[in-house]
Amino acid sequence: MEPRPMTRARLRRRAARTLCGVVFLLPALALAAPTATINGPYAINEGSVLNLDATGSTNAVAWRWDLDNDGQYDDATGETPAVAWSTLAGLGVTDGAVTIGLEVEDGAAATDSATTTLTITNLDPVADGGGPYGINEGEDLTLNGSGSTDPGDDALTYAWDVDNDGQYDDATGVSPTVTWATLSGLGVVDGAGLTIGLEVTDTESATNTATATLTITNLDPAADGGGPYSITEGDDLALDGSGSTDPGGDTLTYAWDVDNDGQYNDATGVSPTVTWATLSGLGVVDGTGLTIGLEVTDTESATNTATATLTITNAPPTVDHGGPYTMNEGASLVLDATGTTDPGGDTLTYSWDLNNDGTFGDATGDNPTLSWAALSVFILDGTNTIGLRVGDTGNTNNETVDVTTTVTITNLVPVPDGGGPYAIDEGQDLVLDA
């Protein structure tokens, strides 16, 4: 059985029993000072609990620890304390090798101290890219890396790879907002299962990466057919679909339905010009409230349609009456209005007023021939005014144009015919015949 340790109390009791013993025991009392045994060195991973051990110390009744090496033994107490990581971090004792100290004290204020090293190994952070994310095209994307952690609670920096090119250079910060303009510029547009990457870095430059998925839903474009449009028949029609938009800025194609048959096959392009010949061929002529349709299609084949109104104003024909006319009395008169034109190519009617009485219908057609017998009913020798009325047809607003010209009839000298020769018997009457 091991002998009981010599404590101060036992020494005092022994000294009380014999005076001579005091002389010899006082040196023994002086030799019983405490001895610090810190053990160590210690090694832990960041984030772990530090278990200290001073059990080798002797003659100690108090154990005080200096963990931040500031010379103050005020960071932990006890012979075998367990120091939480939060305490170490609060003392600034984090990654690397540091010096820690132990001070022990006996009951008479005698102390002893010792030091050792503590090595803390940095561990990689754990990245969490958040998600899965889902937005509509045209919307901004807000990322969230706040689920990322570090075993030692190191401050983290965040770098994002939005376009999945392996470079974490598209956004920074724990929860950045990436604008649609940036996404579009990176080529991150419509699609499902797009990959977003996050790289986190701690204060010791240790890194970790994680990915999340992004789904961008394509939205239909918005068609704008422009208008309302208004032209005069015979004019070309310039259409304008430039007001059409796409939420994601997709490239659009444009197809136009000019004849309102439900087929978008009459013109293409954002601002096409449709010639009058094409309009006329499509049967799009005079009228108000005509409907023009536009269909726009984005790069994902999503479509949208819109309509606009078209008014085509009927224009009067340009009349060529063919005159002035000259003729000799007795001859036939050929009238000629074939030089008359209509801007819209409308069918024309022709009605003539031969005696200038304001009533048309004495002759019809663009090139009638009038015999002298028919003509002489209306006009006489000399200069006569005749009128022509031309009207277009097939329009909601028909136009007529009245013009006048002259017909000059030259009187001819009569050709005498005395008859004869005559022969009669005397006594008979003579009948002359001119």
- Main β-sheet, spatial strand arrangement: 1-7-6-3-4
Low-confidence stretches: 1-31
According to CATH, the homologous superfamily of the largest domain is Immunoglobulins
Average pLDDT figure:
89
CATH architecture of the largest domain: Sandwich
Largest sheet: 5 strands, mixed
Report the structural category.
Answer: mainly beta
Describe this structure in words.
The chain has 434 residues and is mainly beta. The protein has five domains: 1-29, no CATH class; 33-121, Sandwich (Immunoglobulin-like), CATH 2.60.40.10; 133-217, Immunoglobulins (Immunoglobulin-like, Sandwich); 229-305, Immunoglobulin-like (Sandwich), CATH 2.60.40; 325-410, Sandwich (Immunoglobulin-like). Helices cover 10% and strands 34% of the residues. It contains six helices and 28 strands. The chain has helices spanning 8-17, 19-30, 85-90, 180-185, 276-281, 372-375, and strands at 42-45, 50-51, 62-66, 76-77, 82-83, 96-105, 111-121, 133-136, 141-142, 157-161, 171-172, 177-178, 191-201, 207-217, 229-232, 237-238, 253-257, 267-268, 273-274, 287-297, 303-313, 325-328, 333-334, 348-353, 363-364, 369-370, 382-392, 400-410. The strands form eight sheets. A five-stranded mixed beta sheet has the order 1-7-6-3-4, with no helix packed on it. Helix 1 (8-17) runs antiparallel to helix 2. The chain starts with 7 loop residues before the first helix and ends in a 24-residue tail after the last strand.
